[in-house]
Design a protein that fits this description.
The complex is a heterodimer of chains A (231) and B (387). By secondary structure, chain A is α/β, with parallel strands linked by helices. Chain A has a single domain (4-229), classed as P-loop containing nucleotide triphosphate hydrolases (Rossmann fold, 3-Layer(aba) Sandwich), CATH 3.40.50.300. Chain A has helices at residues 2-9, 54-61, 84-94, 110-115, 125-138, 154-166, 184-200, 212-215, and strands spanning 10-23, 26-39, 43-47, 69-74, 77-78, 95-98, 172-176, 204-208, 220-225, 228-229. With 387 residues, chain B is an alpha+beta fold. In chain B, helix 2 packs antiparallel against helix 9, helix 2 packs across helix 11 and helix 9 (250-282) packs across helix 11 (297-324). The chains are: A alpha/beta (231), B alpha+beta (387). At the A-B interface, helix 3 of A face helix 1, helix 10 and helix 13 of B. The structure holds adenosine-5'-diphosphate and magnesium ion. Residues 54-55, 176 of chain A line the site of magnesium ion.
Chain lengths: 231, 387
């Protein structure tokens, strides 16, 4: 009974999660037996020095990377046990990913970039248009849908990327240093959007950041050091 | 689910500077392929255009071409009486005995020489070949050393204007007219009076007979009659069939076309491969991003194959466009059947263009196969970290 309650309240449950890279004779431990629970609707920020394993942890939670040990349940699904195709579908339906470098497709317009994840769903063109426009309006770029990435500012690009992360209505949004390449005003806008998502749209947001001011937007901060949680 | 095609189209267009050389290379290969095949097609067409289904051709048994055939005057007389032959208003049988002679003549300009087919022909023979029209001057007068040359030969040989004289075998011939064979084998002939040509070239016999039959049934009866007659060492066949068999010269040209295209396509495949590898390399992080969004390896693979095929298709279209410039352009070559100059036009058929396009798409797909596999195999994390 206890575990059931735990699963319902926690969107992410991590137990003894490890990631060890083998480089010849040397083992590089990126994550060392981490256990962590993340509650639904939380805006969790992940801090720590460079190389402490933040990205690695985020990638495993998002189903992009695989641990070498331990478990990672997201919404009751052990993502470490899904095969590659299952993982691809799972990512498409359950996680939105925001990159430090935006990673928009340069030849596609804002609208087309946001539509990309929806092309993998069963939605028809009209339904897709509705969702794309809703997502773009949510990030305040309803009027920029036909612009190419290079016609947008960095802050606008990152907001398009957030719209792309949201468009499939995932319950989990992960962001790896999303403000790392932005000026302070744009960073403020982006952080505000992520905060709104967790507070009013009931999304769980996990964000890696270096910046304590950025971390202040979150509802909880955890610290990683040499692959271990320190608080 | 696949990535949208616009994604591939725009990637090719955006990178046009890098892809232009490859596109032009593929265009060149396709242009060469289509042109050489158009040459073979034109050559075949000039033969297959020629026959008239109402006519029957008679040559010596065992001869594959008129120029190596002989029909004696006795045989000609015998055939004359066959009842299947149509007759004119004066009740004369519509049959012509032709003499075919190869003469060596100087070309225009370069001072080179080539064999030309000279046909000694009777007025009936001209009537039996209504494709041929006189376009300049007048027909030759029987009993005189006068010739009518085809317009296409006139463009290629010296002294072939109306009023010009040229020598062959020490005798002088005068050009009185220019004829147009309307894309038939007669575009490669000189015509003169049959009897005059026999005396001029000292020929006892004729080369071939051409006759008009009453109807299709008569044609079959006549052919069967001649083929079964052991005393007549002659071979009869419909004029259409005869000219159909005269397309062997096109075979090595087709082979040459296939060979050139295959050899050149290897270069084009490597060019496409190079371009697509560069494209995959430049878009590594993009590929990682697509995978994060949920696109599978095989979508990535398909996308790059489609992109390579599209790129090559543009090249193919350009190549077809280039080759259109030579469509209809007339060209001469030595025929392996008549051993004389054969003049014909390049002929690009829609099917030939389609084959060229299919060819280009195959080049594109083969060339992008390895780059596409590399793209599909990229590990997501490593791809995301690339700059
Ligand atoms: N492919 C790899 N091979 C070996 N070591 C790696 C690889 N990727 C990451 N690491 C190591 O794992 C550790 C954690 O990396 P990462 O999660 O990217 O750190 P952070 O995001 O906190 O800067 C680092 O020490 C890094 O060098
Ligand atoms: Mg990192």
């Amino acid at each position: 009974m206890l575990s059931q309650v735990m699963v319902e309240a926690n969107i992410v449950t991590i137990r003894k999660l490890s990631k060890v890279y083998q480089q010849g004779d040397i083992n590089v431990t990126a994550l060392n037996q981490i256990s962590l629970d993340i509650r639904a609707g939380e805006f969790l920020t992940l801090m720590g020095p460079s190389g402490s394993g933040k990205s690695t942890l985020l990638h495993i939670i998002a189903g992009i990377d695989r641990p070498t040990g331990g478990e990672c349940h997201v919404q009751g699904v052990d993502v470490t046990r899904l095969n590659e195709s299952e993982l691809a579908d799972w990512r498409n339906q359950n996680v939105g990913f925001v990159f430090q470098t935006f990673n928009l497709i340069p030849v596609l317009t804002a609208y087309e970039n946001v539509e990309l994840p929806l092309l993998l769903t069963r939605l028809n063109r009209q339904q897709r248009r509705h969702q794309v426009n809703t997502a773009l309006e949510l990030v305040g770029l309803g009027d920029r849908s036909h612009h190419l990435p290079r016609q947008l500012s960095g802050g606008q690009e990152q907001r398009v990327a957030i719209a792309r992360a949201l468009v499939t209505s995932p319950s989990l949004v992960v962001a790896d240093e999303p403000t790392g390449n932005l000026d302070s005003q744009s960073a403020h806008d982006v952080l505000g959007i992520l905060q709104t998502l967790s507070q009013t749209a009931d999304k769980t947001v996990i964000m890696v950041t270096h910046d304590p001011k950025a971390a202040a937007f979150g509802s909880r901060t955890i610290h990683l050091e040499k692959g271990e949680l320190t608080n | 689910m696949a990535l949208p095609l616009t994604y591939n189209v725009r990637n090719v267009l955006v990178r046009w500077r890098a892809t232009l050389a490859t596109i032009l290379g593929i265009a060149l290969v396709v242009a060469v392929y289509v042109s050489v095949q158009a040459m073979a097609t034109g050559l075949e067409k000039s033969s297959t255009n020629t026959g008239d289904p109402r006519n029957v051709m008679i040559v010596r048994k065992g001869s594959t071409a008129e120029s190596s055939s002989q029909v004696t005057r006795e045989q000609f007389k015998l055939i004359n009486y066959l009842p299947q032959i149509a007759r004119d208003s004066k009740n004369q049988p519509l049959i012509s005995a032709d003499v075919v002679v190869l003469i060596n003549l100087p070309r225009r300009g370069d001072g080179g020489e080539a064999n030309v087919l000279l046909r000694g022909i009777s007025p009936v023979g001209i009537a039996l070949r209504p494709q041929v029209t006189l376009v300049e001057g007048r027909w030759f007068t029987p009993g005189k050393r006068e010739v009518v040359v085809s317009r296409r030969l006139a463009a290629r040989f010296a002294n072939f204007e109306v009023g010009d004289k040229f020598k062959t075998g020490g005798k002088e011939l005068t050009v009185t007219g220019i004829m147009d064979g309307n894309n038939t084998a007669f575009d490669s002939e000189i015509w003169m009076d049959a009897d005059e040509s026999r005396s001029l070239f000292d020929r006892e016999n004729y080369s071939s007979l051409l006759l008009r039959v009453l109807d299709a049934a008569a044609s079959q009866t006549l052919i069967a009659r001649i083929e079964s007659d052991k005393r007549l060492p002659l071979h009869a066949l419909s004029e259409v069939d005869y000219y159909k068999s005269q397309t062997k010269t096109a075979v090595p040209i087709k082979f040459l076309g296939d060979f050139l295209a295959t050899a050149m396509s290897i270069g084009a495949i490597f060019a496409a491969m190079n371009t697509m590898y560069a494209s995959v390399g430049a878009r590594t992080r993009e590929i990682g991003t697509l995978r994060v969004l949920g696109y599978r390896r095989r979508s990535i693979l398909a996308s790059f194959l489609i992109e390579g095929a599209f790129l090559a298709f543009i090249g193919g279209l350009l190549g077809c466009l280039f080759s259109l410039f030579i469509n209809g352009y007339s060209i001469g070559t030595m025929s392996f059947q008549s051993w004389s100059e054969t003049v014909f036009s390049f002929r690009i058929t829609p099917w030939l263009a389609v084959k060229g396009l299919i060819f280009s798409v195959i080049v594109g797909i083969v060339g992008s196969l390895l780059p596409a596999i590399r793209a599909a195999r990229l590990p997501v994390i490593a791809a995301l970290k690339s700059v």
